[in-house]
Each structure stands twice: as C-alpha cells, then as structure tokens.
Amino acid sequence: MAAARQLPLVVILGATGTGKSRLALQLGLRLGGEIISADSMQVYQGLDIITNKASLEEQALCKHHMISFVDPLVTNYNVVDFRNKATALIEDLFAHKTIPIVVGGTNYYIESLLWKVLIDPEKKTRPLGPGGGAADRRLELEKLDGQELHRCLKEVDPTMASRLHPHDKRKLARSLQVYEETGFTHSELLQKQQEEEGGGPLGGPLKYPNPCILWLYAEQAVLDKRLDARVDAMLAAGLLEELRDFHRRYNEEKVAESCQDYQHGIFQTIGFKEFHEFLIEEGKCPVEQSKQLLNKGIEALKLVTRRYARQQNKWVKNRFLRRPGPNAPLVYGLEVTDLSRWEEKVLEPAIQIVNSFLQGQQPPVEPIMLAHEPEEDKRRGHECAVCNRIIIGDQEWKAHVKSKSHLFHLKKSLKSHLDHHSAKCQSSITETSQTCAEASSGNLEA
C-alpha cells in the first residue's frame, strides 16, 4: 500500500438522506478503513434516532469515531474541540496505514478537517462545562442584544461587521471573541489565512495532500419523498419515546424555569425543538389537541429536514463545485436517485475512485464542476433604507429587491415622498398667493 502520508482522506458529502452513512460503512468494510463522523449533533450522548447515528450493529462491523462521547448537558463543545480530536484520530489512522473515512453532515466540521486555519483563539486544553474559559466568554457575549453586538464589532472590525447580520449573534460574538483574545481583527486573520501559500478565497491551504471527496446527490423531488419517509420510519423506530425521555431527563425542568435553550449543544438538534409544544402539553391538554400538536411537530420536522438538505447541497456547490480558488479539492459525484441501482451507480464507482487515489492514478470519472460566479459575494452586506433591513449576500440582495415586501415598502415610500412634495408645493403656492395678495392690498392702499 502507498506510504502513510499519501493515503487519501476520504470525505463523503451529501444532503441528509442520500446514504452517506451506508456508503461509508461499505467502503470501510471493503477497504479496511475507519469512519469518522463529522456531525455536530452525533458527538452528544442521546437522541440516537433523531440524529441518525450508526446503529450498534453497524459500529461493531466497522469502527466509528466521534459518536456519543459528549455529555448532553455540555453546551460549549464546538468546532475547535471537534477539529483537535478528529485531527489526532486522522493522524493516528494514517500512521497505522488505515484509510480515514469522514462522513457528515455539518459543513463547518468538515471544513475544519480539510483546510488549515490560523484563527484559533480558544485554549486547546480548556475544560468542557462550567468554567470553560473561551467558550464561556462567547456565550456571555451572545447574551447581549444583537444590535449592540453589531455596534461593538463595527467599532473594532467594520469589515467583518459589514458581512454579518445583527441577528447572527453567534458569529458576531465569535468575531468579537477573536479580537479580544488575539488582538487582531477577525477580518485581518482571515486575510492572512487566505494569503498563506496554498491558501485562497476558501481559507488556508489544504490540511491533507490527498483528499478524495465523494458527493452523493439525488433529484430533489425524489429526495424530498425519501426524507418524509425517513421521518415516518423514525417514528416507527421509537422517536416519540426517545424525545419524551430526553425531554423528561434534560429539558423539562429548564422549560418550567423558562430557561430552555434551543441554540446551543444537543438541544439545537433538528427534530427536538419542533416537538416543543407537544412535549410540554402532552398529558395536560385534551387528547385531540395533543394529536394536533403531534402532527404539527411531525410536519415541522419534515419541512425543516427538507430545507436542511437544500442548505447542505448549496454549501457543496458553493464551496466545492464552483471551485472559487486553488485550494478547493476536486469532487466526484455519485447519483443516488435510484437506490435499486446502488451497487452499479454508487458503491462500485466509489471503490474505483478511492482505489485510483491509492494507486496515484487519475480516477476513471471526471470530477463535477460548476461555473464560478466571482461577481457574487455571499458575505457582502447590503443596507436597504426603504425596508430598514440589512441583507447579507449578493444573491439574497437580488432576491430582496425583487420581493413583494420590498416593492410594497418602495411604493409606500415613493407615495409618502410624493405626498410630502405635493404638500410642500401646495404650501409654497399658498404662501406665494398670500404674499401677492398682501402686496396687492398694499399697492391699493398707497
């Protein structure tokens, strides 16, 4: 086999429901690799069904890492913690000539393993939980009003402030924390990172020299139906019992004290907060009402899951397929629309691609690329004076100025301006008429 450092880092991308975990398991078995989960919710203990963790049987077949090792009450575990632990695992697997197979889910977790970063203000040895140091400072900042955070950031780092919305308290707090702990602005560090040899618009240089990126994709309509069916399968597998138990053990008391938090830790899991009303009202309201709340939660879960799948695909297209810089690794696509052709269309091509990387050869298929659109900046800020809103991203701005809401406020603003102008003109005419009348009266008297 090739030298350890030449082994590929296999990364399986794709929207939820495309079969990433299935392919990872099969590749692990066929190639003797081990699987590293890059899902921000799977690191926590609990909610195994809703976070779609590999079953114990699957974990017994092929070794899985980064699953169920963080206490669910910890809310300050973050991407830096993940990156440090996962990177050490990858290095260890390479040293033992074992292929690491990263599979996920969480965009910034995957990015932390692909690209080197210079921004790391948080202490590597900080404890988790109360007294966690840097993470606690970020949480402290997040308690401030979004407008106040945005104002503070604008004073020290106007460039980064222009890229962030006042509602995005987490990123605002993160940028302020970077400045407080490093003495450099977030935008300055990002610029240095991009200018480093091998860096580019996506960030610093690639961390590993031989990344093998596989992207599973399907027709959206087919994937939507598959995701709805998966929610139904989760319910059949005991999802409600899992949610009830987790709520009773970890969230019921918080709700009673009005201090529940669906923005941090495992509590932000897609599928938990969607059942909030059902969980707090069950047994306290009529059965029919409880059923309605349950159905509402189920439909909300299906909707947010479909929406999340679209966000994941959008990220892959923007960060990889449009190749916005020299440090964007090639991506090889595998279509999973027809699951009956899995072996032919997915598994065998995936094995061929990985084997090509192992042998230092060109894969038998061409990578997927989309036309790059350099004129569009997804982080550029636009201020709409008409609607009194800040819009982040060129695409979002284009959509906003065409929206019914903007056009309504624009029409209303123009009408107000015209009315004001008309009233001003009328007032001027009246004043002129009065002046002329007074002058005329004075001439007559003379």
From TrEMBL:
Return the EC number: 2.5.1.75
Which segments of the protein form a coiled coil according to its record?
A: none
Sorted alphabetically, which InterPro entries does this protein's record hold? Answer: Dimethylallyltransferase, IPP_transferase_euk, IPT, P-loop_NTPase, Znf_C2H2_jaz, Znf_C2H2_sf
Write out the catalysed reaction: adenosine(37) in tRNA + dimethylallyl diphosphate = N(6)-dimethylallyladenosine(37) in tRNA + diphosphate
User: Is ATP-binding among this UniProt entry's keywords?
Assistant: yes
EC top class named in words: transferase
Presence of keyword Cytoplasm: yes
Record's Gene3D superfamilies? 1.10.20.140, P-loop containing nucleotide triphosphate hydrolases
- Functional description taken from the UniProt entry: Catalyzes the transfer of a dimethylallyl group onto the adenine at position 37.
Name the protein family. Answer: Belongs to the IPP transferase family.
Name this polypeptide is given: tRNA dimethylallyltransferase
Can you name the source organism? Answer: Gekko japonicus
Which gene is this protein's source? Answer: TRIT1
